[in-house]
Amino acid sequence: MNVGAVGTPAWQVVAAHAERLRAVHLRQLLADDPQRAQRFRRTLGPLLWDFSRQRIDQAALDALVALGEAAQLLHHFAPLFCGEPVNVSENRPALHTALRQQDDAPVYVEGEDVIPAIRREQAKMAELVARLHAGQWRGYSGFPMTDVVNLGVGGSDLGPQMAVQALEEFRHPDCNLRLHFVSNLDGRELLALLKDRLNPATTLFVVASKTFTTIDTLTNANTAREWLLRHVDGRFDEAAILRQHFIGISANPAAMSGWGIAPEHQLRFWEWVGGRYSLWSAIGFSVALWLGMDGFNELLAGAAAVDGHVRTAAVAENLPVLMALLEVWNHNFLGLHARAVLPYDGRLALLPRYLEQLEMESLGKSVTLDGQPLPVHSGPVVWGDTGPNAQHAFYQLLHQGTEAVMCEFIATVRGRSDVPVEEKTRALHHQRLNLANCLAQIEALAKGADSKDPHRRYPGNRPGNLLLFDALTPHTLGMLIALYEHKVYAQAMLLGINPFDQWGVELGKRIARELLNVLESADKVPQDAVTAALVEHIRQREAD
Ligand code: F6P
């Protein structure tokens, strides 16, 4: 099976359509085809995806579908789901789909079925969740836990934090815990929590790190441990404190044990789960704590529904695959190099950050699977914020800047479900105002507006996607995340790159380790002249 469609005849056909449409304004495309809204939309259960504001016509869409077929995009999903080592530079599978598989059909990694191990860890997770919900998990002095702090970064933080915030209204009635997320290594978040808001006797720390070597997370974990021990002041045995106040989640059990996590409080996942794809594993522990295991399973089931869709729907009907084709169209054929993610739903405020990692760590590559230079663009810059806030911040650039940006609007028809009766009318008004803004912006960006005054002119022609869910639930959130995961994979297969490694983050980590040594010993000087000058400046100021 060939990987990558760059430069193939089907790619050239798409290029010819881009040439044909380059000077055609979206306004024109919309006026020429009154059926656009019906033609360029797809549905999947409670999701409507409208892509009628993309700069395509039917012939261009057909050419993109033909490109997807020629690239055998659907066939590429089989090795992903079957556990083949699709992560070629690390010679590993990327089996996040097995974590949310709804039945027990075997999935083999090096001849071993991984499903029984997944079920074992899920059962262990359920048991820990149940103990915490029942108030049976006691701290060193015998009190039940009141606070749980997830210490993790990147994939070990962004997914759980985003999901807990998005699904706030689905808190399990037995979950009386406050959840906190700490990622930043500068200590600010953690020290502020430790100083005022946490009681050492009733705080449980969850050290979440696939590798269990990430200095950010281990430094925060060490700070938390010191804080606990200081408060206990020798009254209790250190091993007992660690057992009662720390859970570890990792693919590296030896490192968890080495740090002091009791084996019975270790939750495991595996090398074949990518960090940014790990929400579905034990890394989702905080989500399971918040929603309960049934709610967490609903999240998994939503993702599994998309897994089923992506494997079986024809290219022309396949949402993630079409999303990938359209992004490659915008990026490589129309020259739009950035995509703004704009949720019109405050519950999804952290989704842009989550997607920044998922998409840019996955697609930020410049060589093909076999190490050759990639001759085209890989992934665009992805960033965003909640739409209504961003309207008052960076939308000016979206409307009138010289850099055209792809815009992705995400909204729900219904707002929160837990609004008290007396506030329902106001809540509905807020929700309609929110939707009115969402619909207005996508229309304005597409059509633009003329004016005699050049300062008041809107060029328009900015392509937009709208993902409109009936409601935000654990199930639809699972769908949304899986849609993006599979979009990224389809994009990578189209371009012939590896979406599962991230070698680009290693160099900076190595230099930082060396520089920490330099900063901590006055006689060491960095090799780089500019860094040396900056270190000198820092030393002088520290001494002042
Ligand atoms: O540095 C990047 C990265 O490796 C991400 O891919 C990962 O999600 C994050 O760091 C955290 O890694 P870990 O879960 O191993 O601590």
Key terms:
alpha/beta; six-stranded mixed β-sheet; five-stranded parallel β-sheet; 21 helices; binds 6-O-phosphono-beta-D-fructofuranose
**Shape designation:** globular
Biggest sheet statistics:
6 strands, mixed
Total strands: 13
Structural class: alpha/beta
Strand order of the largest sheet: 1-2-13-12-10-11
Helix content: 40-55%
Strand-residue fraction?
5-15%
Total of helices = 21
The radius of gyration over CA amounts to 25 Å
Residue runs with pLDDT of under 50 for 5 or more positions: none
Q: Could you tell me how far the N terminus lies from the C terminus, measured between alpha carbons in angstroms?
A: 64 Å
Instruction: Output mean pLDDT.
Output: 97
Ligand species: 6-O-phosphono-beta-D-fructofuranose
GO molecular function, one term: monosaccharide binding
Organism: Sulfurivirga caldicuralii
EC number: 5.3.1.9
Protein name: Glucose-6-phosphate isomerase
